[in-house]
Design a protein that fits this description.
Chain lengths: 490, 332
């Protein structure tokens, strides 16, 4: 049973340079799919900066480091009998893969290192905890005298689970505030990454039912990092590591709009040719044309807008009091006036699905609305995350009625499928694949880099709608999903 | 190219042959600069072996051409086996397609002999039907789909509809043939709605009704799964004499204005076709399917329920503002 510590109860001593050593590990990932873009263990890399300042000698192993093509290794996972591990859900099955370094590769790398005094392991998604457990076990076996600490999102959201399941000595719950304001130490990579993750602020005043930001940040208060500090980090990485692409990972970057504007203006003033991204999106209510123009000048080529749903009543159910279709429209029009082109992936809209009690018609309507207004629809398959309102409400159902553990609550495995089948007996797991497929093909139907709009009044769209109206009912064609990662079951 | 070759080898005799001089012989004679523009086909050429040894390394792909039924079956099989098994620098052809249109009907003996030779010799080769097979071929010989599967036909791109009259009943008949042919292919082991079974439709014919074309393509994508749209390439005699040859390119849709749609409208059809053919996890989405999501999409599109102005529920005013550093709400 690991000891659970927090920022208030844990101290990092200062040593003479090299007086203590730490090995930092980002574990591999066990999942059915993994998206390697904009995935960097930013928290661990900030802790590296902090520990180095405190005199630690640092070794670092990122099992999820990408190759030159931006990809990570992928291998099938097998059970003890040598059979492919599958997650079977209703009429589909998904293969489980081991993404990143194999445990043998990791062991080989660790054996080449001097035994450290401390091993810091980051653990991101709560449903990836099993690979953290395996890395802790490996670390303990190879370096039995080292203190093993695990921090990150998983131990923060599920500290008791982490303490009882991982085998680590210390479970760090919450934020290590001293590290939050520090730059990530990308020099630890042998080949510097082509991008860096930045955070200009932490915290969000809102409390959407599915979001864990309040727990992760210790409340609703928003804290910002100084503009000079942010610019220093950007300039250093641009000058010394040749990094031009920066991704802003924020809880709600625009809550302190003045600060964000200062950052954008400072980037413009320095004349840095940067490519800026905010793949988590901006609160639409706080976007206007002037700000979007400024962002474009600073280097934003794309903007992501969290539509989530087109239904006002659902926004309210999700406690998204700040969100509405009107504010989405307002932000969209402002983005277009600022020079971001719709139907080209310069403007993108998130649509959320997979929640309990959702109506699939609402998801389809939201998808088509986003397709019509924006062109690029980004599917967000919901995972119930410990500490959120949804998780608290359905905790008993998920963990006791269904008998699941955290690894089963991965959105890709449709944790609310059976729950939603209660209200919709016709619903099958393959319908969620269909829904993902719909969003995907709506984005892929491009000609001359522009997505066709099935909902507009152009001659061809009207002809297509007319064809759907007059659906042929003569024959029903069986519909199957049989590809490598999704297997239809008898 | 002719000018460049002439400059480099001024004394060489330049022979120009192929579709261009065959179809636009006068133009080629006047404009190409070649010494000998070959007007029409070179007799017996299609029956000759393709000499892949001219390439520095053997290409992985090769066409097999029968050309005339007079070519001995054994000769064709010999060429096939030589291509797929000959080793030069460790390389060989491993992707093969028949070049002859309507090959099953025109040359049934040749076609089956090659497939059987491939099966008998356990050739490590993949066949591709690139518009040389018609759905009706499978209906007339119900064993054919299984034979294609055994012979390792990896992709069946069915012939397009250019040769058909465009009456509504013809389209209905073709859709029905497709549906039954795809059933046979699925029974033989081909996967529906993937890249292995592809319907073809031509687009941009003179006098076509674009709305009918959209309906046909959508239904074709429904029954066949995947859809390839081929811009209609007119014969020069179909085009106005005033239209330069280089503008008779099918991809420019030379009949777009006459069809009351315009180039932009044709681009929209191509975009729709790209959407109908787009794959997710290797499968296309079926807008006319009977599944739950397909039905919901149709309902939403047809009733415009996706438009929030058409849905019930209270609206909210737009509020633009932010929290300042003191945590107070400030309106913009």
């Amino acid at each position: 049973m690991g000891e659970i510590v927090t920022d208030e109860t844990f101290t990092i001593e200062t040593y003479r340079p090299g007086g203590r050593s730490a090995l930092l590990i980002n574990p591999p990932v066990y999942d059915a799919q993994y998206w390697a873009r904009w995935s960097q263990p930013a928290g661990l890399l900030r802790i590296a900066t902090l520990l180095r300042e405190r005199g630690y000698a640092i070794d670092f192993v990122d099992c999820m480091e990408t190759d030159a093509r931006g990809l990570v290794k992928k291998a099938n996972r097998f059970n003890t009998e040598g059979k492919q591990l599958l997650v079977k859900r209703d009429n589909i099955a998904k293969r489980l893969y081991h993404f990143g370094y194999s445990l043998d590769e990791l062991e080989s790398r660790l054996r080449s290192l001097q035994p450290p005094d401390e091993i810091w392991i980051t653990s991101i998604m709560t449903y990836w905890w099993e690979s953290t457990r395996d890395v802790v076990a490996l670390s303990k076996r190879l370096f039995p005298h080292a203190t093993v600490l695990v921090g990150g999102i998983y131990p923060t959201l599920a500290p008791e689970h982490a303490a009882s399941h991982l085998g680590a000595d210390v479970i760090f719950k919450g934020e290590l505030r001293e590290a939050s304001q520090l730059p990530t130490d990308l020099a630890l990579y042998t080949t510097p990454p082509s991008y860096a993750i930045l955070a200009t602020s932490r915290g969000c005043p809102w409390d959407c039912v599915y979001c864990a930001a309040r727990t992760l940040n210790g409340g609703a208060k928003v804290r910002t990092r100084t503009t000079d500090d942010i610019l220093d980090e950007i300039c250093y990485k641009f000058t010394h590591l040749g990094i031009r692409r920066f991704g802003f990972y924020e809880d709600n970057a625009l809550i302190n709009r003045k600060h964000f504007i200062e950052v954008m203006e400072a980037i413009i003033a320095r004349g840095l040719p940067l490519e800026l991204y905010a793949p988590e999106g901006f609160e639409t209510r706080l976007l206007d044309e002037d700000l979007l123009r400024l962002m474009k000048r600073a280097g934003f080529e794309k903007v992501h807008l969290p539509l989530e749903t087109v239904r006002t009543d659902i926004n309210r159910q999700w406690n998204r009091r700040h969100a509405s279709t009107e504010s989405f429209e307002h932000a969209l029009e402002a983005a277009i006036r600022a020079g971001f082109r719709p139907r080209t992936q310069e403007i993108n809209a998130f649509v959320l699905f997979g929640l309990p009690d959702e109506r699939l018609e609402d998801v389809v309507d939201s998808t088509l609305y986003a397709h019509h207004r924006v062109g690029s629809v980004i599917p967000m398959l919901f995972s119930p995350v410990p500490s959120t309102q949804v998780f608290r409400k359905y905790n008993t159902y998920l963990l006791e009625t269904m008998g699941w553990d955290l690894q089963d609550l991965n959105g890709k495995f449709l944790p609310f499928l059976e729950y939603n089948q209660r209200n919709n007996p016709e619903l099958r797991a393959s319908d969620y694949l269909e829904l993902e497929g719909l969003m995907s093909i709506l984005n892929n139907g491009k000609i001359l880099s522009r997505a066709v709009d099935l909902c507009d009044d152009a001659t061809i769209s009207r002809a297509f709608q007319s064809t759907l109206r007059a659906k042929r009912t003569k024959r029903a064609v069986p519909h199957l999903h049989e590809d490598a990662s999704s297997l239809i079951l008898p | 190219m002719v000018a460049l070759v002439r400059q480099r080898f001024p004394s060489a005799r330049i022979v120009l042959f192929g579709a261009y001089p065959a179809l636009a012989s006068e133009h080629a004679a006047v404009h190409s600069g070649a010494d000998v523009p070959v007007l029409g086909q070179i007799e017996g050429l299609a029956a000759q072996h393709v000499d892949l040894s001219l390439y520095p390394s053997i290409p992985v792909f090769s066409y097999l051409s029968i050309g005339t039924a007079q070519r001995p079956v054994g000769d064709l099989c010999e060429e096939f086996l030589a291509k797929v098994s000959s080793v030069r620098s460790g390389s060989r052809v491993w992707q093969v397609a028949f070049a002859d249109h309507n090959v099953v009907k025109r040359f049934p003996e040749h076609f089956r002999a090659v497939l059987q030779a491939s099966i008998d010799h356990k050739c490590k080769v993949s066949f591709f039907a690139l518009g040389t097979l018609h759905p009706r071929d499978l209906l007339e010989d119900p064993e054919l789909a299984a034979l294609l599967q055994r012979a390792a036909f990896k992709q069946l791109v069915f012939a397009d509809d250019r040769h058909l009259p465009l009456a509504a009943e013809t389209r209905e008949q073709l859709l029905d043939e497709y549906a039954r042919a795809i059933d046979l292919c699925a029974a033989a082991g081909y996967r529906r709605r993937t890249d292995t079974l592809v319907a073809s439709a031509s687009l941009g014919r003179p006098g076509e009704n674009p709305e009918e074309v959209v309906a046909f393509m959508t239904n074709l994508a429904h029954v066949a799964g995947s859809l390839m749209v081929i811009p209609y390439q007119p014969d020069p005699v179909e085009c106005p004499a005033s239209l330069p040859l280089e503008l008779q390119n099918g991809k420019l849709f030379p009949f777009a204005e006459g069809n009351q749609l315009g180039f932009r409208g044709y681009q929209d059809i191509l975009g729709l076709a790209a959407m109908l053919n787009a794959k997710y996890r290797a499968h296309t989405f079926d807008f006319l399917g009977d599944g739950l999501i397909s039905r919901l999409v149709r309902e939403s599109l047809v009733t415009e329920r996706w438009d929030p102005r058409n849905s019930p529920g209270p609206s909210r005013p737009v509020t633009v503002g932010w929290f300042n550093k003191e945590g107070k709400w400030v309106r913009s």
